[in-house]
Amino acid sequence: MLAYTVRRILVMIPTLLVISAIVFTIIQLPPGDYLTSYIAELQSQGESVDSAKIEFLRKEYGFDRPLVEQYAVWLVGLVQGDLGYSFEHSLPVAEVVGDRVYLTMLVAFATILFTWVVSFPIGIYSATRQYSWGDYGLTFLGFLGLATPNFLLALVLLYLANVYFGTSVGGLMDPQYIGAPWSWAKLGSVLAHLWIPVVVIGTSGTAGMIRRLRANLLDELQKQYVVTARAKGLPPGRLLLKYPLRMALNPFIADIGNLLPQIISGSAIVSVVLSLPTTGPMLLSALRSQDMYLAGSFLMFVAGLTVIGVFLSDLALAALDPRIRLEGKALK
Amino acid sequence: MMGRRRDMAREAQGAVLALAAALCLAGADRAGAKTIRVHPVETPSLQARVERGELPPVIARLPAEPAIVEPDTPGRHGGELRLLMSRSKDIRYMVVNGYARLVGYDTDYTLVPDLLRAVEVEDGRVFTFRLRAGHRWSDGHPFTAEDFRYYWEDVAGNDLLSPTGPPVDLRVGGKPPRFEVIDAHTVRYSWDKPNPFFLPALAGARPLFVYRPAHYLKQFHARYADAETLARLVEESGQRNWAALHNRLDNQYKNDNPDLPSLQPWVVATRPPSERFLFERNPFYHRVDLNGRQLPYIDRVVMNIAGARVIPIKTGAGETDLQARGIDFSDYTFLRQSGKRNGFTTELWETAKGAHMALYPNLNHTDPVWRELLRDVRFRRALSLAINRHEINQVVYFGLALEGNNTVLPYSPLHSPRLQTAWATFDLARANALLDEIGLTARNGRGLRLLPDGRPLEIIVETAGESSEQTDVLELVHDGWLAAGIKLFSKPSQREVLRNRVFAGSTMMSVWSGLENGLATADHSPEELAPTSQQQLHWPKWGQHFETRGKAGEPPDMATAQRLLALNRAWRAARSAEERTAIWREMLEIQAENVFTIGLIAAVPQPVVIDDALRNVPRKAVYNWDPGAQFGIYRPDIFWLADDRRRAGY
Amino acid sequence: MSAPDGKSAAAPLEHWVSPAPFDPGAVETLTAEQERYYMAPVWLVMWWKLKRHRLAVISGAVLLAMYLSILVSEVLAPYDLHSRNTDFIYAPPQQIHLFHEGEFVGPFVYGFAYMLNMDTLKREYAENPTDPQPIRFFCLGDDYEFWGLIPGRFHLICPAEGGTLFLLGTDRLGRDMLSRIIYGTRISLTVGLIGITVSFILGIAIGGAAGYYGGRVDDVAMRLIEIIRSFPELPLWMALSAILPVTWSPLVVYFGITIILGLIDWTGLARAVRSKLLALREEDFCTAATLMGASPRRIIGAHLLPNFLSHLIASATLSVPTMILGETALSFLGLGLRPPITSWGVLLSEAQNINVVALYPWLMLPVVPVILLVLAFNFLGDGLRDAADPYK
User: Fold this and answer.
1) Chain A residues inside the 8 Å CB shell of C371
2) Does A81 touch chain B if contact means CB atoms closer than 8 Å?
3) pTM for the whole structure
């Protein structure tokens, strides 16, 4: 067990290194750098640009250095915990990202909760009453959420919420509560805004979860021990919940590690449409303007979280299932 | 802090005693002709602070000679104004819209002194600025010639802070001016040759700042600050050196430092990053109305940051009081309908670009056959004649826009109908005749004309891919050109990629907006009409040649372009208004005849949303960046809320 | 049987032997039904099991119809893709009526015209109940070029001569939405296929190698998968789209985008293939094949993979919707297909503004075929997967 853990930790380091190289490449891939996109933006507004000043800035920010050197500088800073400086906001990256991370997590957890709460009953019902009209109907509903493009659904709900409920448009709370201390009114406002992204993002996830739960549960329900238990007279409810459901949950624990990048990606588009102060829109605009440190450090942060998440869930599974520990032996 | 407040209070009491006899202020009206007397009235929202002694009373807060303003409807103090912007960088627009300038444009686009009491110009090259006595920064410290000297010697003249020297607008023929401090309230800039750019630069939307809050910035300057304290400040801030720290904090345009004293009507009170910025009134603002109320009327401006796509929806929901950014003509219907429900009106203001959309044939295109063709003035004329601008106007803009060339607009004194319609009517017969005349008579099986080397005449127009409006208009242009035997392909791309391609000469034709300043008078620089900048998408390499003084790019090899450059040079040296007007007219004529850019439509209306309670906002006006500063020239400090509850803060 | 001393025996024991010829099936007689079942090839059994899943069958039929419609889009659409009508901008959908003033006339629409509301600058359309415009079938209408090659004018359904037929309304240039959606089918339906192929090849190759060889190959593959999966998709999309040169024609850009989508999507399949192979390679038949001298490629290709071919097929059908939704998302971000190309994603991103939602909601109708397609693929995939192991 210890050997497995140590081995995995040692492997994580080169993984993160490779990820950092990929992240850097991805950001630098589009032609130009932050200054060119800044100039283009100024000019499209009609403001004139002092080319001498731009050259000066280019030297200041180090854009005239070779790419490898820029990468090294950034990497060294990262290792020391210095996330860098955002050109777009003229602030350290940590400050820009700051509160947004908490809000992103809030939305993410609310979404995951919603997904589980919706998909579990439907999945269980689907598995136990296979091929019935209820099965068809509920899976249809679940899949409807998957099939509708998120951005359109978000926009429609945004508009309807404003027209019918008077909810202020976009954001996670009414504007007057931004920066104000927490109160019941503020909480109510947050909930009134939160349901739209949660429903839009959550409904896409429910379909997949329903399907997986259904498939796993069906597999489990056909096993011998279930037949034995039924023959022995265990009540059907207890029969379902006590053993097969727990086994069917196995893959979900494995999946949690991968949930994070999905939620961040999946919600970036919805967050842009709904103008949520989360990390998605920030990342999008940073990528567009090639704000290297902001985009790069944030992506590394996300990737790092995922790698650690996968590691932890693998660890959990290895503790549960000895087969996994012994996996990967070469073919004789 | 407390000590300073006590000092200010004492100083204020002294001023009050000194003026006890004449409890009124005298100021000159705009023409400077007669003296008006006003009796200042205390601002209700500042009353508490004055009573506590934190602020001097209003009579001491205003300069001895304030700017006296007569708005359409006299306003009352109170309330907050809500605005929506799409990025947190947009707090700079409070400096644009606050529009407190040394000299500014008024609603007729004439330059008048604003922060300054008076400006004297001699020969177009010697500028004497007279400040207002008793004028203070937003923190109460006096605004004097020292602030100008600090800028000139210690900022623009300091190698670390300004490695490239004084800004371009301060240099004539490469030479900086001679700067003199005449007395505590008078400074003078003198050049050897006329500097026609100086005053317009000071009045710009993004103005040239030739002054700084010296008392605040000195603590970050190596020459004035204690070395040890400065070193500590530098380290705390995480900047590289004191120059970087100074530059970081000295950002009057960026407006992101709440501690930086300001002369604008509202001062930023929230430190970035934030989704919601507050701007509080400047207690020492220099303008006052005839009733003695110190401007601005509105106590606070609240700027909410929302994504660009969401702004039209939020505006329709009534979440803003004054909005023009982020909404465009296609949102008009929605806003009109929502306005009835949510208590605002949507007016249509004019935009002032020479063209809202124009095609830019790239005269520096690398393909030799195409370059030859694009340089042939008959080809460009034919392309322009084959476009049905009327249909574009009807389909996309309900006929409310102005069809015609990329040239000055009817407001401009330089305008003439001929400039607008030369080669810009829809005349397919003439277009076909011109194309035949050039020799493009061969056609392929589909009816497309062929180039001399046999390739079909397919023009690829590259766009920045940001607006579906451009794609729509190009669809309409496509049909017109097809009737003339030319096929149009529109290729969306990314903004920078497009620009790079244009600069390199790889594009055949691109789409962009037209002249920045369609309201030009003879006093404005005509450089947009000559190849002076790489950013001009129709001759980027010639423009680059001019910008870099011959180090990069190519010199213009067309007689007409050379003539335009010569005229541009002549304008700079011109000394009389007649000379400048004549130069402008000739340049505009050359542009119209040669169709260097193919303008499509201009004067597209800009919707402006105005809350029902907001007063003194003009119903019909011009919305432009420079000159105009968005709402700037209409002076938002005189806007006020006619609703009692809102003024009381509900 | 003879007696032990071989002398005269007693009478033989009574026994009975059936004289009938030997019939091996006598022990367990199969009915004709059962015989058919056991003798049927695998794919037939799968088909029978699939038929049980009614929703999957319906979905399959719908998909088939959609894919076949691609071949004849020009004929099905009442208007040509680019034809526009400046008199009918933002026209709402026209209703089909059957009875005009009490008489049965056949399907027709009423002509209509707009009045410009000068206050809101809105075009307000009103039907003209005295102007019935019968719909023509199998008629000659707008010209088009069939697949860009053969000019033609034959349509399945067209408006009356000089009339209009906007069954789903028009957009801001006066183009018929129904025709645009039909033409958009071509691109939207095929964008998934190429992406799937790419992701399949990658997934099977890498997953198969990892699962079969194990050890270091597996480690490297797993790390690679982990790296790709730990990335938010957004930056990958943006970076890869930035690589595509602008000079390429729109069609080539479109292929490039589908390949990009495929390059990002293969990891799920690879993981599934790998875990399956890890289990299967320990099976006896695999050992037998190895001992008989089969090369690893043959073992993977001919023995292991067919065992879960069904799972692969199900995976494929379940991945296509992801591709299609990915394409719509890319169009929304401005990275994918853009006008003037017409696909459902482009139509939806053009509909992505408040004016459409509040004033012209019929422009959001392209979402209906997207939903139908995604649902159809999902149900079909579910059905295939259920049917995949017919002997379960």
Assistant:
1) 144, 147-148
2) no
3) 0.86
In this complex, do B490 and C340 lie within 8 Å of one another by their Cβ atoms?
yes
Interchain contact, B535 vs A43, CB within 8 Å: yes
All residues at 6 or more sequence positions from C150 whose CB lies less than 8 Å from its CB, including other chains:
none
Query: What tokens were used for B417?
Result: 């109908």
Reading the block at residue C328, the tokens are: 């719509």
Neighbours of C166 (CB within 10 A): 25
A329 touches chain C (CB under 8 A): yes
Q: What is the mean pLDDT of residues A75-93?
A: 83
CA angle C136, C138, C140 (to 5 degrees): 80
Report the number of secondary-structure helices (H) and strands (E) in chain A. 15, 2
Homologous superfamily of B357-602: Dipeptide-binding Protein; Domain 3 (3.10.105.10)
> pLDDT, tens digit, for every residue of B259-289?
999 999 999 999 988 889 999 999 999 999 9
CB contact under 8 A, C231 and A19: yes
- The amino acid that residue A188 corresponds to is G
Confidence grade of residue B321 (pLDDT, cut at 50, 70, 90): very high
Contact: C223, A11; criterion CB under 8 Å: yes
Asked whether residue B614 carries a pLDDT value surpassing 90, the answer given is yes
Instruction: Please tell me which of A24-38, B78-92, C180-194 the model is most confident about, judged by mean pLDDT.
Output: B78-92
* ipTM at complex level: 0.84
Closest CA to A145 of A134, A153, A137: A153
* A-proximal residues of C, 357-376, CB under 8 Å: 357-358, 364, 367, 370-375
Q: How many CB atoms lie under 10 A from the CB of residue A224?
A: 7
Amino acid in position A241: L
Pairing of strands B300-305, B80-85: parallel
Most B CBs within 10 Å, among C145, C172, C246, to test the B interface: C246
Stretch 490-529 of chain B: residues touching chain C, C-beta under 8 Å: 490-494, 497-498, 501, 506
Residue A143's H or E segment, with its range, is helix A133-147
Q: What Cα–Cα distance (Å) separates residue B594 from each residue in B424, B540, C208, C242, C263?
A: 12, 17, 66, 37, 50
Annotated domain spans of chain B: 2-212+250-297+623-648, 357-602
- Residue C218 CB partners (closer than 8 Å, separation 6+): A328, C210, C211, C274
Rg of the Cα atoms in chain B: 27
Cβ distance of B313 and A169 shorter than 8 Å: yes
Sign for the CA dihedral angle at B556, B560, B563, B568 comes to negative
What does the pLDDT look like over C73-96, one tens digit per residue? 888 999 988 888 888 999 999 988
Of the candidates A30, A50, A274, the beta carbon closest to that of B168 is on: A50
Task: Name, in order, each residue with C-beta under 8 angstroms of B650's C-beta and a sequence gap of 6 or more.
Answer: none
**CA B433 to CA B362: how far, in whole Å?**
23
Chains that touch C (3 or more CB pairs under 8 A): A, B
Give the CA count within 13 Å in the CB-facing half-sphere of C370: 32
How far apart are the C-alpha atoms of C7 and C267, rounded to whole Å?
85
Using a CB-CB cut-off of 8 Å, the residues of chain B touching C82 are: 475
Residues 42-81 of C with CB under 8 A from A: 52-53, 55
Q: What is the pLDDT of residues B562-613, one digit of tens each?
A: 999 999 999 988 888 899 999 999 999 999 999 999 999 999 999 999 999 9
Contact B471 C339 (CB under 8 A): yes
- Residue B316 touches partner C, C-beta closer than 8 Å: yes
* Cα–Cα nearest to C355, from B608, B339, B324, B337: B337
Looking at residue C27, what DSSP letter applies? S
Our measurement of the distance from residue C228's CA atom to the centroid of its chain's CA atoms, rounded to an integer in Å, reads 25
Fold of B2-212+250-297+623-648: Dipeptide-binding Protein; domain 1 (3.90.76)
